[in-house]
């Protein structure tokens, strides 16, 4: 995985599809849908960011992302419910480690769609893209201990629990334990192909 190739690819971020979902570039026109979930405290409880205060904050964020997309150094998709034609979350790579050929997946979902298998469906599609298109060696995901719902998504997608890094992140005024799950390319190929 070469940085220049990834930047070129993500400067025109490809659209991905599943049975129920469309994963596409986030747009300023998504601000209403994003604010609907990004403003809710239960969504950000286990995330690094605070709830959005108003729709203007959400719009400013989405406008800022357009520059990052053009450069090709932002790797996150809008998760769109095809049936409702509504953005219901995001899923993508929170980081790419070019030196070690690995990717970290992150995701956020509107609570109105929790418990429907949508997060797992989006993560599985992004994971497939990582292994089949980017040819990464390893995909991992992290969660704050206490967010067992997120860990279950990771495990449903074939990731193995590796352990907990105790008090490894200072988030919103306190040190948090961070769990890590991962899957390697040969494990993915043996399980899904």
Report on this structure.
By secondary structure, the protein is α+β, with helices and mostly antiparallel strands. It is built from seven helices and eight strands. Helix 2 (31-38) crosses helix 4.
Name the helix and strand elements from N-terminus to C-terminus, one letter apiece.
Answer: HEEHHHEEEHEHEEH
Number of strands: 8
Question: What is the approximate shape?
Answer: globular
Radius of gyration in whole Å, from Cα?
Answer: 16 Å
Largest sheet: 8 strands, mixed
Low-pLDDT parts are none
Decide which structural class fits the backbone.
alpha+beta
Number of helices: 7
Instruction: Specify the helix fraction band.
Output: 25-40%
User: How widely separated are the two ends?
Assistant: 21 Å
What keyword list fits this structure?
193 residues; alpha+beta; 8-stranded mixed beta sheet; 36% helix; globular
Quick overview:
The two termini are 21 Å apart.
Indicate the topology:
Blueprint: H1 3-10, E1 16-17, E2 21-24, H2 31-38, H3 41-44, H4 55-71, E3 75-81, E4 86-97, E5 102-109, H5 118-132, E6 138-144, H6 148-156, E7 160-171, E8 174-184, H7 185-192
